[in-house]
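Tokens as discussed.
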């Protein structure tokens, strides 16, 4: 599972990473956290929610405008899926009694979103110039750091 240093790697003199790599690493990280939850580590619930919130914010602020230029319907669908995830996260914050069921729904919603994003959106976004993808990767890494500091 990628760690924070790997996810935010922007060493002096190194080029920013492709934003699609960063988003895919976020997906794998959250999948790993769900795995830990299934192994009985309920302490990861807060981290799952925080990472999902940051990831959705990054996509909405920096990615979905570009996606909508290529496929507006797909971008709207992705935003709708984010709304569903936010609703589940909100319910988790209100009730721990339903946490196991809500975590199951959250994991299913995230899995469906990741499948759609990686199979449909990523191929469209790979058509963007390599340099622009790296620039966007730099912006995503910087914004992620801002979100982490604010959390």
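Sequence:
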């Amino acid at each position: 599972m990628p760690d924070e240093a790997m996810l935010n790697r922007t060493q002096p003199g190194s080029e920013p990473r492709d934003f699609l790599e960063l988003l895919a690493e976020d997906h794998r990280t959250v999948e790993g956290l769900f795995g830990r939850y299934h192994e009985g580590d309920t302490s990861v619930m807060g981290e799952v929610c925080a990472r999902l919130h940051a990831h959705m914010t990054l996509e909405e602020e920096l990615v979905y405008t570009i996606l909508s230029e290529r496929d507006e319907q797909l971008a709207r669908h992705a935003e709708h899926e984010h709304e569903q995830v936010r609703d589940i996260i909100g319910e988790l914050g209100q009730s721990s009694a339903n946490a196991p069921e809500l975590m199951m729904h959250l994991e299913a919603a995230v899995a469906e979103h990741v499948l759609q994003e990686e199979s449909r959106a990523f191929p469209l976004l790979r058509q963007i110039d390599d340099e622009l993808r790296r620039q966007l990767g730099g912006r995503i890494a910087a914004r992620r750091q801002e979100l982490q500091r604010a959390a």
